[in-house]
Amino acid sequence: MTNLNPFKIAQRQLDEAAEKLQLDIAAHSLLREPLREYVFTFPVRMDDGFVKVFKGYRVQYNDARGPCKGGIRFHPDETIDTVRALAAWMTWKCAMVDIPLGGGKGGVTCDPRLLSESELERLARGYMRSANRFISDDIDVPAPDVFTTPQIMAWMMDEYEVIRGRHQPGIITGKPLELGGSAGRGDATARGGIFTVREASKMLDINLKGATAAVQGHGNVGQFAHQLAIDLLGMKVVAVSDVKGGIYNPDGLDFEETLAHRLETGYVVNMKGTRSISNKELLEMDVDVLFPSALENMITEKNADNIKAKIVAELANGPTTPEADNILYEKGIYVIPDFLCNAGGVTVSYFEQVQNSYGYYWTSEVVHQRLDEKMTKAYRSVHEMGQKHKIHNRLAAYMVAVSRVAEAMKLRGWV
Ligand code: GLU
């Protein structure tokens, strides 16, 4: 049975790239492990007056290229190994789009869907009360991830500023616009991914106008993939899903209608004029583009052979296992790997930090155009590397990103 521990998977992916790059042993060993990790326990008073105790994590994986950067996830299945894997992937992601940042990630093991608004605020502030001592715009900068929002970033920023007694908006990104957030951050992950799909379609000679897409997940990322696949690429999104299951309509699912239904009922299922499908069916659907936009390990050796999409655009982190990667490659399915496809979020987070540091804000047009330049350039570097070495795109992306981080460590004299 394959080991689905995300950190073990991240290490295996790195090992393969290190071998191909003939990376020296010291650089390889250093890149296999996080530089620093913090695990903390903190109390939160619940609405009923009782105190509940939570586990928080922050992993600073590698900062050779700049301060660590990466989101904070609130999820019941969060473990130190998930955070380690996500922090490693952030390291490759920032190098991939060539921004001067390293990789980090944080999380809390909790189910935010069971918390009231005020409990969520006290949880966010409690996290920052513990984490503030190792967070700073020149050390490590958090952001949103699964189940964390601009409002949560605002509470965390406020807590930090209360502790420090001064304004420091650049210590966290993904903030609301009113508090120093960037235009275009909300849909940046999906938009960046859409740009890579647009570029891939040129390479593969696929006409996306009227072509079909399926989106797994309708959260921070998936909902915007649904919207932008329609608005920017003219695609027909025939299926979307969330934790409760999916919906299908061969004529396409209207974005506004789906969003309104989800906001009203909490989930996408049971929308008028749609057929219910399972998440498994959604992943195996015969569509032009599949957007896994949920969690890790969705495409494994068990279902990879059933995937029928022409392009798999990984907006989630770690949705495909190494075994599945090989199967997809042999089947001729073109994968746009996670830390390339979903790098738009951190790219606009970086733009947000830049704007915070000089207190002058860009229009959404400027953000979109600069994001497009970054994503297009990153996409081309991966595609070319893949073609040159006749390898799948994930390994190609690893080769580009890992060599950049290794070079920075070498220049610093670490290895
Ligand atoms: N959580 C996002 C990711 O996985 C964004 C990170 C950031 O903006 O720092 O890429």
Descriptive tags:
7-stranded mixed β-sheet; alpha/beta; single chain; binds glutamic acid; 2 domains; Rossmann fold
Structural write-up:
By secondary structure, this protein is of the alpha/beta class. It has two domains: 36-179, Rossmann fold; 188-341, NAD(P)-binding Rossmann-like Domain (Rossmann fold), CATH 3.40.50.720. The protein has helices at residues 6-21, 25-31, 80-96, 117-131, 150-164, 188-204, 222-231, 255-265, 279-283, 322-330, 338-341, 344-358, 364-389, 393-411, and strands at 36-45, 51-62, 68-69, 72-75, 103-109, 140-141, 212-216, 236-242, 245-248, 275-277, 289-292, 311-313, 334-336. A seven-stranded mixed beta sheet has the order 10-9-8-7-11-12-13, with helices on both faces. It has a four-stranded mixed beta sheet with strand order 1-2-5-4. The chain has a two-stranded parallel ribbon with strand order 3-6. Helix 10 (322-330) links the parallel strand 12 (311-313) and strand 13. The longest helix has 26 residues, at 364-389. It is globular.
Topology diagram in text:
Elements: H1 6-21, H2 25-31, E1 36-45, E2 51-62, E3 68-69, E4 72-75, H3 80-96, E5 103-109, H4 117-131, E6 140-141, H5 150-164, H6 188-204, E7 212-216, H7 222-231, E8 236-242, E9 245-248, H8 255-265, E10 275-277, H9 279-283, E11 289-292, E12 311-313, H10 322-330, E13 334-336, H11 338-341, H12 344-358, H13 364-389, H14 393-411
Parallel strand pairs: 3-6, 4-5, 7-8, 7-11, 11-12, 12-13
Antiparallel strand pairs: 1-2, 2-5, 8-9, 9-10
Please tell me the overall pLDDT.
97
**Number of distinct helices:** 14
From the N-terminal CA to the C-terminal CA, the straight-line distance is 36 Å
The major pleated sheet works out as: 7 strands, mixed
Percent of sequence in beta strands? 15-25%
CATH topology of the largest domain: Rossmann fold
Quickly give the CATH architecture of the largest domain: 3-Layer(aba) Sandwich
Assign a percent range to the helix content: 40-55%
Poorly predicted residue ranges:
none
Which structural class is indicated by helix and strand composition? alpha/beta
The count of DSSP E runs of length 2 or more, i.e. the number of strands, is 13
Shape: globular
Highest-level CATH class of the largest domain: Alpha Beta
Order of helices and strands: HHEEEEHEHEHHEHEEHEHEEHEHHHH
- Say which molecules are bound, naming each kind only once: glutamic acid
